[in-house]
């Protein structure tokens, strides 16, 4: 708690310094608790993920105690994938969500239970879009390990969430798992999501969010600021990236505010579900 | 449908049965089913019923934004289109996917229905109830029938609506029986039973009300299940079964009434003797050691 107040004061001092410079140039945005110029943010984020790409999956397991798998399962369950769907997973570099969707559609058990049109199975397209080529490479490698290297259903695309290269009204589903807080302009990413989704298409966002429960909140803060950067140093050899990670979570808008932003982008039926008391939240919405 | 709701709300007396109806009318699903003659009355009332509709369609733990009316209409349209595929694909997500394709909406919308297949079953139940109300309002001749026959006729009309889906109806029943879905399916059946009694002409709101609804609920459910295994032409045996149950129900009603009076009498008798005993005890205690007799 003390750490947080210290870093807030520190952050505001940086803000005062930078604002005098920033007022001459573009707007400032947040990079963790620091204030940085907008153009710099994507570069800084890029650096973070280039550094963490190779140990991203291991660190996820360690930091969340394996829970991130359950969260992603829940996300895909909510999506309810179907054969023949065109799905876009943004910031999905290493392919966790994409693989789960692929399995959900193609699993033999599912095909046996339900009547599936074999032709439409062929048409399923899952696009994995990430701004960072290193993350995509890790994803492609994992696909190869699973024997899906040449599978036409999985398509790896390098792209920016704020300026997607897909056509309007082309996607049945859009997911973004633990990616939207790294985006410089969240509204732009939401607007792009709205653009590429078909009528009836679903938007699902899994993201670390704000905890309000009294005692648990302090435990969580302690864990975030004390334990995680140390784990980052120990396992990935990169303290700063993980410091950025926990700070960016605090900077991200709380659940209600984010839900309002989603509604402002034009989506209907905006809802969110808190997991683990608010550590993670799944926001869902529909385009109509 | 809003006309009938308004009529009953403002009509003579506000019994509990009418209150029940006015608070849980699933207006969202029925907006498309109103006949053209009622179409012009829809818009002014749709705002009033908005909150109740929103609360019945919301999900999740977080606070919900109230869905706009077009969204609910869209959902209703998808569900309505899905019903056409139920006979072939069952009460499943596949039927809903096919339905959404018919309407021209991405099948992803299926994922947004709370309790997926249950949403389809519940929509069907609401639609059938609405059709029943419409049939009754458009002049069903019940005057010449005794109450048990009226009940039989109404239940028969309602069950005949299920005939096109009868091959997949067991699946619908099992979906309704899931613990998650039980509250809603119970509520829907309660509304149906309430509506039937109301039409038969019973507006009582005393303890009898619960007994009547329970009995009728039993008659309806047993007939519904009987129908599942009935192979006779045009379900003749089911209707015969229904008529017998209807008669039983009324006899049962009489016997329940008799049982109540009997219990009251016994209660009175027991009460009197207990009172006498207490008096006796009091007297004995107050004149302790005295040789007074009890008040028996």
UniProtKB/TrEMBL annotation, chain A:
Binding residues annotated for S-adenosyl-L-methionine, in chain numbering: 94, 130, 160-161
Top EC category: transferase
Domain of life the protein comes from: Eukaryota
Pathway: Cofactor biosynthesis; ubiquinone biosynthesis
Subunit structure and binding partners: Component of a multi-subunit COQ enzyme complex, composed of at least COQ3, COQ4, COQ5, COQ6, COQ7 and COQ9. Interacts with PYURF; the interaction is direct, stabilizes COQ5 protein and associates PYURF with COQ enzyme complex.
Biological role stated in the UniProt entry: Methyltransferase required for the conversion of 2-polyprenyl-6-methoxy-1,4-benzoquinol (DDMQH2) to 2-polyprenyl-3-methyl-6-methoxy-1,4-benzoquinol (DMQH2).
GO biological process: methylation
Primary localization class, coarse: mitochondrion
Reaction equations catalysed: a 2-methoxy-6-(all-trans-polyprenyl)benzene-1,4-diol + S-adenosyl-L-methionine = a 5-methoxy-2-methyl-3-(all-trans-polyprenyl)benzene-1,4-diol + S-adenosyl-L-homocysteine + H(+)
InterPro entries registered for this protein in UniProt: SAM-dependent_MTases_sf, UbiE/COQ5_MeTrFase, UbiE/COQ5_MeTrFase_CS
Keywords: Membrane, Methyltransferase, Mitochondrion, Mitochondrion inner membrane, S-adenosyl-L-methionine, Transferase, Ubiquinone biosynthesis
Compartments, as annotated in UniProt: Mitochondrion inner membrane
Protein name per UniProt: 2-methoxy-6-polyprenyl-1,4-benzoquinol methylase, mitochondrial
GO MF term set: 2-methoxy-6-polyprenyl-1,4-benzoquinol methyltransferase activity
Similarity annotation: Belongs to the class I-like SAM-binding methyltransferase superfamily. MenG/UbiE family.
One Pfam short name: Ubie_methyltran
Keyword Repressor: no
One Gene Ontology cellular component: extrinsic component of mitochondrial inner membrane
UniProt xrefs under PROSITE patterns: SAM_MT_UBIE, UBIE_1, UBIE_2
Organism of origin: Brassica carinata
Membrane topology: Peripheral membrane protein
Annotated EC: 2.1.1.201
TrEMBL record, chain B:
Ranges annotated as biased composition (Polar residues): 40-57
InterPro entries associated with the record: COQ9_C, Ubiq_biosynth_COQ9
Superkingdom of origin: Eukaryota
Cell compartments where the protein resides: Mitochondrion
Pathway per the UniProt entry: Cofactor biosynthesis; ubiquinone biosynthesis
Family listed: Belongs to the COQ9 family.
Protein name as catalogued: Ubiquinone biosynthesis protein
Species: Brassica carinata
């Amino acid at each position: 708690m003390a750490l947080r107040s210290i870093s807030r004061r520190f952050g505001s001092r940086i803000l005062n310094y930078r604002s005098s410079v920033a007022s001459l140039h573009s707007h400032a945005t947040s990079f963790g608790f620091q204030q940085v110029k907008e153009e710099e943010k994507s570069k800084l984020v890029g650096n973070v993920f280039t550094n963490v790409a190779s140990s991203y999956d291991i660190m996820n397991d360690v930091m969340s105690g394996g829970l991130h798998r359950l969260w992603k399962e829940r996300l895909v369950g909510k999506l309810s994938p179907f054969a023949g769907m065109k799905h876009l997973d943004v910031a999905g570099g290493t392919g966790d969500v994409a693989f789960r969707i692929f399995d959900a559609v193609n699993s033999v058990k599912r095909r046996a239970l339900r009547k599936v049109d074999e032709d439409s199975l062929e048409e399923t397209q899952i696009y994995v879009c990430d701004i960072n080529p290193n993350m995509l490479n890790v994803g492609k490698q994992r696909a190869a390990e699973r024997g899906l290297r040449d599978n036409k259903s999985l398509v790896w695309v390098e792209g920016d969430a704020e300026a997607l290269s897909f056509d309007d009204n082309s996607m049945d589903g859009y997911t973004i798992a633990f990616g939207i807080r790294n985006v410089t302009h969240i509204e732009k990413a939401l607007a792009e999501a709205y653009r590429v989704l078909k009528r009836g298409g679903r938007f699902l966002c899994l993201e670390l969010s704000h905890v309000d429960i009294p005692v648990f909140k302090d435990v969580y803060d302690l864990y975030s600021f004390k334990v995680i950067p140390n784990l980052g140093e120990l396992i990935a050899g990169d303290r700063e990236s993980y410091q950025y990670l926990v700070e960016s979570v605090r900077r991200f808008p709380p659940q209600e505010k984010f839900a309002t932003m989603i509604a402002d982008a034009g989506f209907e039926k905006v809802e969110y579900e808190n997991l683990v008391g608010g550590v993670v939240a799944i926001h869902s919405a529909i385009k109509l | 449908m809003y006309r009938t709701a308004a009529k009953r709300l403002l009509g003579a007396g506000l019994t509990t049965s009418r209150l029940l109806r006015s608070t849980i009318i699933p207006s969202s699903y029925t907006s498309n089913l109103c006949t053209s003659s009622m179409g012009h009355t829809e818009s002014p009332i749709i705002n009033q019923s908005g909150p109740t509709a929103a609360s019945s369609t919301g999900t999740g733990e977080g606070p919900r934004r109230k869905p706009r009316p077009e969204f609910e209409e869209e959902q209703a349209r998808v569900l309505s289109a899905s019903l056409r595929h139920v006979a072939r694909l069952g009460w499943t997500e596949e039927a809903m996917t096919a339905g959404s394709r018919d309407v021209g909406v991405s099948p992803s919308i299926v994922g947004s229905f709370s309790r997926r297949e249950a949403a389809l079953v519940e929509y069907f139940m609401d639609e059938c109830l609405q059709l029943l109300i419409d049939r009754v309002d458009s002049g069903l001749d019940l005057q010449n029938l005794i109450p048990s026959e009226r009940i039989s006729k109404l239940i028969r009309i309602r069950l005949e609506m299920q005939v096109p889906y009868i091959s997949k109806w067991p699946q619908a029943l099992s979906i309704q029986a899931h613990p998650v879905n039980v509250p809603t399916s119970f509520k829907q059946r309660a509304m149906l039973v309430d509506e039937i009694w109301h039409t038969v002409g019973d507006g009582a709101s005393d303890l009898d009300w619960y007994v009547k609804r329970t009995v009728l609920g039993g008659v309806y459910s047993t007939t519904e299940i009987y129908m599942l295994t009935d192979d006779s032409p045009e379900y003749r045996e089911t209707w015969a079964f229904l008529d017998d149950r209807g008669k039983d129900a009324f006899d049962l009603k009489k016997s329940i009434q008799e049982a109540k009076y009997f219990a009251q009498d016994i209660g009175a008798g027991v009460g009197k003797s207990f009172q006498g005993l207490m008096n006796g005890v009091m007297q004995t205690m107050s004149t302790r050691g005295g040789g007074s007799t009890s008040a028996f």
